[in-house]
């Protein structure tokens, strides 16, 4: 279900999907995905509202997605043999993520 959440970073109300929540001393903190900005943010529970009627039917501008059949690679360096090979990695390198974002722009 899509809600409306106030983003402190953007200083405005945004449509959001609630991903998770955790209790803190001052109330609940909810982890949200802003569907029109493709951003994750943390929002206090008092800053979440139910989305009214017609606004819920407007299509999202952003969606979570992944690249089909694309696996992360990294450069494996063997200092003893003085070689470097590209091989599979568990996570994407920061440089690869930045390069991909530049390509998208």
UniProtKB/TrEMBL annotation:
It is an enzyme of class 3 (hydrolase). InterPro entries: SNase_OB-fold_sf, Tudor. Its EC number is 3.6.4.13. The keyword Plastid does not apply. Keywords: ATP-binding, Helicase, Hydrolase, Nucleotide-binding, Repeat. Residues 3-68 form the Tudor domain. SUPFAM superfamilies: Tudor/PWWP/MBT. This is RNA helicase. It comes from Pomatostomus ruficeps (Chestnut-crowned babbler).
